[in-house]
Amino acid sequence: MAGELESLEKLLEKHIPPDELREVWRLLYGKEIRPLDLPSCASQAASKAGFDLQGYGFEAAQEQTRRPRIVRVGLIQNKIQLPTTDPVTEQISALHRRIAEIVEVAAMCGVNIVCFQEAWSMPFAFCTREKLPWTEFAESAEDGMTTKFCQELAKKHNMVIVSPILERDSVHGDTIWNTAVIISNTGAVMGKSRKNHIPRVGDFNESTYYMEGNTGHRVFQTAFGRIAVNICYGRHHPLNWFMYSMNGAEIIFNPSATIGELSESLWPIEARNAAIANHCFTCSINRVGTEHFENEFTSGDGKKAHRDFGHFYGSSYVSAPDGSRSPGLSRVRDGLLVAEMDLNLCRQTSDKWNFKMTGRYEMYADELTKATQPDFKPNIVRE
Amino acid sequence: MAGELESLEKLLEKHIPPDELREVWRLLYGKEIRPLDLPSCASQAASKAGFDLQGYGFEAAQEQTRRPRIVRVGLIQNKIQLPTTDPVTEQISALHRRIAEIVEVAAMCGVNIVCFQEAWSMPFAFCTREKLPWTEFAESAEDGMTTKFCQELAKKHNMVIVSPILERDSVHGDTIWNTAVIISNTGAVMGKSRKNHIPRVGDFNESTYYMEGNTGHRVFQTAFGRIAVNICYGRHHPLNWFMYSMNGAEIIFNPSATIGELSESLWPIEARNAAIANHCFTCSINRVGTEHFENEFTSGDGKKAHRDFGHFYGSSYVSAPDGSRSPGLSRVRDGLLVAEMDLNLCRQTSDKWNFKMTGRYEMYADELTKATQPDFKPNIVRE
Questions:
Q1: CB of B103 within 8 A of CB of B120?
Q2: Is B21 near chain A, with CB under 8 Å?
């Protein structure tokens, strides 16, 4: 991507002297986090396979009655591998191969839970508004080829896998959903979590393809901690994060596909705010690169029809409940971010800040119920 | 404040070349905003009176059926003026004089609505847990000396004033509240808005002094736009911002008092997220400086007893619904931030992103009601 910056972090590090840089990071990214000492075989493999590898550790205080609950999480961002005009199954297989390669490195780094980007087994073709061949990328969440592929990976590496795909639900009249499949480290499908909020914004007119999810705010009790998945546009909805947290999520993944012009200044804010507001970890994953399509389409933004969506800016990152965050992965390259977290930090932060205790949810349940009524009267004071 | 940085913005501007700085601001602060051309008499007065003066303009697209709705908002941050051991009424009067001086400059800059910091007519003495003399700073919201002072200012300058004070409510058994008084540009008291969420965090053990507010989520229809006030700790609660927005607020003020060690990395995130999530402007105002008290007190953080709270880091700023934000005021000096905003940007952003339309509030009202029940069962999936 000529002209695209590799990352904000690299730019700041290039220009700011180390003593002042420390204060910049404190103000921008919160409490200092520890770079992980990843095995050299992993760094070499990442370098050879041409992807960005970074690792950071988030620590918690020692407790007397609970042992530290250390988990290593992996976030993967990647480009599509073949042109969007290639046969569907070849495109899928090429993505499987790329992900297998990156997950191999995640395993070297001791990752326990890995999450891929939104609709990872396909190009993000929803901008086209065309149905074929794109709906052919939809697969059964329970036994599609992508789920089977993930089950093998999960077993091989003893790793929980969060696999966001386009789901074909043949049990309910061939409905299509935007769904994350959660696969246990044993290889079993634990269940699925569907995208709750669907955008109708510019090129993201996804309601052409699927509707609002009906799986609510499930949390999955994995061997390594309680996780939930808030897919893409759901990150703009604070109540969506909140309900996953109320159901007990300690880590909420946000697999996404979003582009620079539209959302890049929102990207560092929303998931990090959710980590703070809900006393949990959030993992933000964005696609990377530019995807080209055969036929022109319009974005509804008054500009000319075009054949690409814009630049997916990557920049995947992890936020902690104490407001600290990791640097972002590359804005232009594939990447694997490894985050080691002590999940005890969630309850420790909750005990410090007490947002759930001071939340007054009875009042809000009542006000929200009233606000959804057609005859709702806003509370406006006039002189 | 020896050793305290003046501002993040100045540090970045010192080191980063202009062409790269543009991209840094885009990534950190969103769409470029316009520095306001403030009158030179205002700059001179600010310089003479020793406070930071900055001005920025947020623009909206032209519409055919609505005219631009331009409003100028002023955010004021200030230190206390006298030692906390001085007589109560002298401390109050000195603060009145300082604010009158800064509001005079706001008037030169054409400000229509001004908001002061939380409990602006007193030191933030709640850390002491002592009652006298601090409760003597509490005044009637309707006709206390501070409200009368603000009414005169409002009439003189044709300015709406948001005046957050410690309120003595003699009608209800001498109850004390943390309250913002909203004074119309005509000088009339429009009403009051009480702090909805009360912290019990370290030195912020404010529930010793006042309880959760009972004025709900009122919005005030002023001559210059619909405003609401989310006081301090309420900014950690996304539902609090949300209900002000559902009641129609276009600008939500967040008068605060918060210190570096505790919250500085959260400060740029929460109010900005609220502006994005609710399609409105948010105005974040923080106290500045360090306040010393006569008797030692403990923070409940395992450290030694101390006589000051820590450093209030100022850094007041404005966030727009499109995710852009202004630079912050000084971390160490008094300041006035003038923001010109076209309120049409709120509905334009809502029409673009549709968060209220896609919010699924019926579902959340139902889930939230269930979550508040003592026998609530979290939705947890096990293998």
A1: no
A2: no
- Tens digit of pLDDT for each residue in A116-174? 999 999 999 999 999 999 999 999 999 999 999 999 999 999 999 999 999 999 999 99
Measured distance CA(A95)–CA(A114) in Å, rounded? 16
Fold of B35-371: Nitrilase/N-carbamoyl-D-aminoacid amidohydrolase (3.60.110)
* CB contacts, 8 Å: B26 with chain A: 264-265
**Fold annotation for A8-369:** Nitrilase/N-carbamoyl-D-aminoacid amidohydrolase (3.60.110)
Strands B52-58 and B335-342: parallel
Cβ neighbors of B304 (< 8 A, separation 6 or more) are: none
Distances (CA, A) of B249 to A367, B228, B242, B326: 16, 6, 9, 20
pLDDT tens figures, A336-371: 999 999 999 999 999 999 999 999 999 999 999 999
Burial of A214 (0-12, 13-18, 19+ CB in 10 A): exposed
Contact B34, B327 (CB under 8 A): no
Say which residues have a Cβ less than 8 Å from residue A172's Cβ, sequence separation at least 6. none
CA of B135 vs chain A CAs: smallest distance (Å): 23
My answer on whether omega of the bond before A133 falls inside 30° of 0, hence cis, is yes
The CA angle A257-B378-A326, to the nearest 5 degrees, is 40
State yes or no: is B9 an active-site residue: no
In 3-state terms chain B splits into helix, strand, coil percentages (rounded to 5) of 35, 25, 40
The answer to whether A188 contacts chain B (CB < 8 Å) is yes
Work out the minimum CA distance from A302 to partner chain B, whole angstroms: 13
State the pairing for strand pair A204-205/A200-201.
antiparallel
In this structure, what are the phi and psi dihedrals at residue B205, rounded to the nearest 5 degrees?
Answer: -90, 60
Token readout for A81 is 């591998």
| ipTM tops 0.95 | yes
